[in-house]
From TrEMBL:
Bilayer topology term: Multi-pass membrane protein
Native organism: Cereibacter azotoformans
Pfam families in the cross-refs: BioY (PF02632)
Main location, first listed in the record: membrane
Record-given protein name: Biotin transporter
Family: Belongs to the BioY family.
InterPro entries: BioY
Length: 180
């Protein structure tokens, strides 16, 4: 039990630390950040439930006002901007990523890659597109088109999440709770 709580807190902190990587904001107002890599890792390493809990803990801290999102953003006001859909989608993305890794018993590299693509890109983009369309007054296809510059970087993050998960499984298999 204590180990699970520690992992949830550790991975919430990991998402926060990945927000320190300098962001690049595109004209859509949505920044390119490393935090979605943290969301993918939460699901791939911790599994669906614990991964989503880690992201929810992170979001509680953000909503309380801590400047943990990229660019030092925090507070409930983050839900008023074009990134609102992504913020809301973070825990769902981690859950779906973890669910794929838990259920698909392929080698962890492949299941973590598939989970990261499905949860950390497809699901997260789904939430992001809806949020951007709503906040920017765009149609869903217009908002989706605004996300195309993010795709290559997010695919790289999905590969990184898969490789990190595989590396953890090789050196500390007991840490990969999604495979426990």
């Amino acid at each position: 039990m204590e180990r699970n709580v520690a992992y949830v807190a550790l991975f919430a902190a990991l998402i926060a630390v990945l927000g320190l990587v300098p962001q690049i904001t595109l004209m859509s107002g949505v920044p390119i950040t490393a935090q979605s890599l943290g969301v993918m890792l939460c699901g791939a390493v911790l599994g669906a439930r614990k991964g989503a809990l880690a992201v929810l803990l992170f979001l509680v801290l953000v909503f309380l006002g801590l400047p943990l999102l990229s660019g030092g953003r925090g507070g409930i006001g983050v839900l008023a901007g074009p990134t609102a859909g992504f913020v809301v989608g973070f825990p769902v993305a981690a859950f779906v990523t973890g669910l794929v890794v838990e259920k698909w018993r392929a080698p962890v590299t492949w299941s973590a890659l598939a989970g990261s693509i499905l949860g950390g890109i497809v699901v997260l983009y789904g939430f992001g597109v809806v949020g951007m369309a709503w906040k920017l007054g765009k149609t869903l296809p217009e908002a989706a088109l605004l996300l195309t510059p993010f795709l290559a970087g997010d695919l790289i993050k999905a590969v990184a999440a898969a490789l990190v998960t595989r590396g953890l499984e090789q050196v500390r298999p007991w840490m990969v709770l999604s495979r426990a």
